[in-house]
Amino acid sequence: QVQLIESGGGLVQAGGSMRLSCAASGRPLSSYDMGWFRQAPGKEREFVAGMSWSADRIYYADSVKGRSTISRDKAKNTLYLQMDRLEPEDTAVYYCAADFRRSSWSTRYYLSNVYDYWGQGTQVTVSS
């Protein structure tokens, strides 16, 4: 079992950047396919970015593609989400999630019910 703790959220001006961290404990992140999701008030949780356990498959939502980077530091057992050119529409609670290498992950990575473990979330607010 893995425990996930997100950090790095806060108040950012539109056009700025942020880097979210997801620190894992209990098991190596390389044991899991990982995802970043976000949920804005009154909206459903939505996929942002995902990385396979081997880090050879990476996916982004269209809304963040080209201005976001998901990465992993194996030594620190931490997953990151770098987002640039932030927009007020990026305001949400951001969650990291882990899926224990389901074979269907590569075709279902964008579905929240694929993931077994979730962090508590970190709030990101982008001001205009």
What would your notes on this structure say?
The chain is mainly β. The chain has one helix at residues 105-108; strands at 3-7, 10-13, 18-25, 33-39, 46-51, 58-60, 68-73, 78-83, 92-99, 117-118, 122-127. The strands form two sheets. Strands 2, 4, 5, 6, 9, 10 and 11 form a seven-stranded mixed beta sheet that branches. The mean pLDDT is 96.
Topology record:
Blueprint: E1 3-7, E2 10-13, E3 18-25, E4 33-39, E5 46-51, E6 58-60, E7 68-73, E8 78-83, E9 92-99, H1 105-108, E10 117-118, E11 122-127
Parallel strand pairs: 2-11
Antiparallel strand pairs: 1-3, 3-8, 4-5, 4-9, 5-6, 7-8, 9-10, 9-11
List keywords for this structure.
mainly beta, 7-stranded mixed beta sheet, globular, 128 residues
Quaternary organization: single chain
Strand portion, in percent?
over 45%
Intertermini distance: 40 Å
Query: What is the tally of beta strands?
Result: 11
Radius of gyration: 13 Å
N-to-C order of helices and strands: EEEEEEEEEHEE
Share of helix, binned:
under 10%
Give the overall shape: globular
List low-confidence stretches: none
Number of helices: 1
Structural class: mainly beta
Overall pLDDT level? 96
How many strands, which pairing sense, and closed or not: the largest β-sheet? 7 strands, mixed
